[in-house]
Amino acid sequence: MMRDKNGKSAEASGAHRRDERGFTLIELLVVLVIIGLLTALVAPNFIGQSEKAKPKAARVQLENLRNALDMFQLDTGRYPTSQEGLNALRTRPSAAAHWSGPYVRDEIPLDPWGNAYIYKNPGGTGSPYEVGSHGSDGQSGGTDTGSDISVSG
Predict the structure, then answer these.
(1) 3-state helix, strand, coil in the chain (%, to 5)
(2) CATH number, residue 143
(3) Are 41 and 96 in contact (CB under 8 A)?
(4) What is the pLDDT of residues 14-44, one digit of tens each?
(5) Considering the entire predicted model, what is its pTM?
(6) Distance CA 110, CA 65 (A)
């Protein structure tokens, strides 16, 4: 029987080396497959949640715009015209006496899908104004995340 310089048999030192080699290719592939399966199961849930959150974010932004429009009306005695639009909340319109803005801190936000909010004066159903978004499809009407979202004054 052969012995190494420490006096161990060749079989014992070979077994010892086998224990120190690390992971085999098969073991690494199994771990990668498991990680891939977990990602495939979990990722769609997160992606779906962000799409569901966009209409809620639009409603929050619309409520903030409604508050700013009400402040504009309190100061000037009127709501912005359709021509003045939401920009009247940031920049003083020439026909707005007693304007004390800006009424929104930052630029007028885009809706969560990257489109400008739509402002109409007068609004529908006899309201003084309406501000809204066409949703994810950018078209009037629609369903699910593509449905219209609006608030009226």
Answers:
(1) 50, 10, 40
(2) 3.30.700.10
(3) no
(4) 555 555 667 788 888 888 888 888 888 777 7
(5) 0.66
(6) 11
